Amino acid sequence: MRRFVKRLYLALILLFLYAPIFVLMVYSFNVSKSRGNWGGFTFGWYAELFRDRQIMQALWNTIVLAVLSAVIATFLGTASAIGINAMKKLPKRVILGINNLPVLNPDIVTGVSLMILFIFAFNMIGRGGLGFTTILLAHITFNIPYVILSVLPKLKQLDKNMYEAALDLGATPAAAFFKVILPEITPAIVSGMILAFTLSIDDFIISFFTTGAGVSNLSIIIYSMARRGVNPKINALSTLIFAVVMILLYLVNRMDSEKLKH
Question: At what angle do helices 132-157 and 89-104 cross, to 10 degrees?
Fold first, then answer.
């Protein structure tokens, strides 16, 4: 009986979390624009979605932003994690506390702060304005702490003697890092990159405050469309995003399981 109650409790939680998404997915195939009536099955909203130039441009901006910010943040975050791991106890605590601030801060605080910083910088140099570059810098900024938090625990698990043993065997510091340390922390680096990519795609508040005219990502476009009422194209777009995320999760989990087998 106790086992049944636990499973029922878990099923109710999953139903509560995913029922709205499944309803959205079903209505993305609804002929009617009404959110309460089923008018028949259609792929028409998906066709209209791909014909909408504004949404397609926002999709391109979102993918480019997510890829660039994830790659750059992963590089900087991994290098920072290696440096933090080599620090002494007190400086490490201070730096980790500073690193945790953007994670704990409300997004609106980070967004407004970055917007003020960018405007101040542009006023100082007398040129430039909010646009693609500023939103990219903002995404890199809030992604770096998450990459550090993903890579640092793996570095702590490593045997400190591995690097020194490689040096004793004649390897240069660079060779010891790339042949000994890097392969061990690669899973954590990949996890940090995927997390940064997902956070970049998902972000709205920071993007809203740091972008300029003519540059929008999907979250901003969906917000502007939703203000005029829920357009069925939003349902179709959200369904595609959900499907892509599920496929990515499946591939990552499959790669991890195969690594454990070997």
Answer: 140
Residue 174 belongs to domain with CATH number: 1.10.3720.10
223 in any annotated domain: yes
Strand partners, 30: 41
CA separation, residue 96 to residues 90, 101, 150, 193 (Å):
10, 9, 13, 19
Q: Tokens at residue 107, please?
A: 């997004």
Does any domain span residue 209? yes
At residue 104, φ and ψ (nearest 5 deg) are -85, -25
Q: Are 24 and 235 in contact (CB under 8 A)?
A: yes
The confidence score (pLDDT) of residue 262 equals 55
Residue 19 lies in a domain: no
> Are residues 148 and 165 in contact, defined by beta-carbon separation less than 8 angstroms?
no
Task: Report pTM.
Answer: 0.83
Provide the number of structural domains found in the chain. Answer: 1
Enclosing domain of residue 183 = 63-229
Residue 30 DSSP SS3? strand
**Which residues have CB under 8 Å from 254's CB, separation 6+?**
none
CA distance 10 to 20: 17
Worst-scoring range by mean pLDDT, 28-37, 118-127, 191-200?
28-37
Does the structure show a pLDDT above 90 at 250? no
Task: Supply φ then ψ for residue 41, to 5 degrees.
Answer: -95, 140
31 domain-assigned: no
